[in-house]
Request: fold
Amino acid sequence: MFDLRRCNKLEKIESLESLTSLETLIIHDCTELNTLPSLAEATSLKWVEVIGCNKLEKIESLESLTSLETLLIYDCIELNTLPSLAEATSLKKFDLISLETLLIYDCIELNTLPSLAEATSLKKFDLIRCNKLEKIESLESLTSLETLCIYDCTKLNTLPSLAEATSLKKFDLRCCNKLEKIESLESLTSLETLCIYDCTELNTLPSLAEATSLKMFNLRRCNKLEKIESLESLTSLETLLIYDCTELNTLPSLAEATSLKMFDLRRCNKLEKIESLETLTSLETLIIHDCTELNTLPSLAEATSLKMFDLRCCNKLEKIESLESLTSLETLLILDCTELNTLPSLAEATSLKMFDLRRCNKLEKIESLESLTSLETLIIHDCTKLNTLPSLAEATSLKMFDLRCCNKLEKIESLESLTSLETLCIYDCTELNTLPSLVEATSLKMFDLRGCNKLEKIESVESLTSLETLIIRDCTELNTLPSLAEATSLKWVEVIGCNKLEKIEGLESLTSLKTLLIHDCTELNTLPSLAEATSLRSLK
Reply:
């Protein structure tokens, strides 16, 4: 054994070639070392480890090391040549006949790899940050290869066929900016995971028709890719992620991808339609973001396992069909679909817990919320043409209702039975002139009402014994507030910019009140006594 470490001024080592009994050679962090002697006669060597030798340019005569089992070379940034390993037939970790694992990281001067045609035992090949490498040869005969990872090889322009790599389970290709095509994936019947990221010149993908074991396909930032073929036969596919493929204009049918659980599609700006989602009975998560040309969605009528549907920034989409049968749906997010004018009934979406609807400027009505007995969160923002909300009378699990900037909405019905409601926020609904009674909303902790310019009165706040925060701002026509005498949990009361409000009643019994803010209520002429508001800390 010869172990040499951190000898920073050592420039060369002489006469290792005659050490016929040497089994282990370790050289670490000898930063001035520029030459290693031949190892041609060190025929007993089993382990060679050379790490952090920044000036070392070559290693000679490894080819005759018939006993060598492990070869580790890291962080030798000037190393530009490796000798042949043709006779290193015992090698298990690095190269050739018995080789099972080949890891090549950060060899920034490496421009050539020897053929791997005879490395028939190779199971794992990682090639990462070899910035001068232009091609890889002879992967097609690697019948034992299970994992192939190629990252950040920025000059790599060709990949050999993988036609015979029939054991390949994982193929992960990232940041190979000059690679234009990948060949012969169609015969990879064992492939389970396919990840392709940031291959910005990639314009063609081979058919995946026979990759019937594929479970995960993750495709990101392949800006020149126009189409993907033959996903329809991927009966084992569980996860499909497609991000930032800005030229992608066609997706194949997913009709037979009956195992698909997650489909996440983002920023595919030329994609106009998606076909055949209706048969995806295993689909649990559907995310579609920023597909600005998408104008049609297929029916989701049979996607009965769907739990989450997240749709955002699909500016040409006018309607969504067949949500009414989604009995497993728990989360529905629809944001910034500015042409959406119709939503299907949600009458049977009885598992729905969260419904978040924002900036759908052409949507005029929402149907059938009244039967959503599991609904806990309802958020509706900036739906400027929405003029009607269905009754919420049976949404008895609702904890949060946040309604903002719905300028045509005139009334809200049936809040009085919402016994689980904890937070009620209503902002800038400028045509809202009526609020229903809150008499049974006994769990309400926060009531925040702002910018409702036509609202003249609020009813039944007095029974809200759990209410802790009451904020009323810029309700310029509000002339009456009910008594707050029984809202004994109130800690914060804020009344600002209510120009017609003449009096506030029941403050005198609010023993928990800590903050009272009253500004710009120009008609207010009376305040009750605050004698019992013994917790009051701030009065403005």
Notes: The chain has a mean pLDDT of 87. Residues 8 and 30 are 5 Å apart (CA to CA).
